[in-house]
Amino acid sequence: MAPDAKELFERELEGFKALQDALQKSYETRMCLIGQQQETELVQDEFATLEEGSQVFKLVGPVMVKQNVDDAKANVEKRMDYIRGELDRANTLCEEREKELQEKQRHLARLQQDAAGAAG
């Protein structure tokens, strides 16, 4: 590989590695959101099984505070909506980064082929 071609390849390879790291972080964020979604669904299931007159408490710091059942249900639903929105955003970001990574991979392969053709 010529010095300029090698330098270009190295820069592109660094970009590829950075993109891989960003994609990994996006996957981790998505997995965290999925965990939060599952936890929130469990809370919703618990609300569905509450008997009439049940009391609901919320942990605020080190203290359990009594909370209105309807308010608690509304808060959990808002949280679920928020998580769904963030999960949609995370999925879109992962898809975009996956496509970008594939493009970068193809570009690196072309650079290698071009260098091999120039050397041969």
TrEMBL record:
Key word Oxidoreductase present: no
Report the protein name in the record: Prefoldin subunit 6
Gene3D superfamilies given for it? 1.10.287.370
Species of provenance: Prorocentrum cordatum
Give the record's keywords alphabetically: Chaperone, Coiled coil
Where are the annotated coiled coils located? 87-114
Tell me which domain of life the UniProt entry assigns to the organism this sequence originates from: Eukaryota
Q: Which Pfam families match?
A: Prefoldin_2
Q: Which family does it belong to?
A: Belongs to the prefoldin subunit beta family.
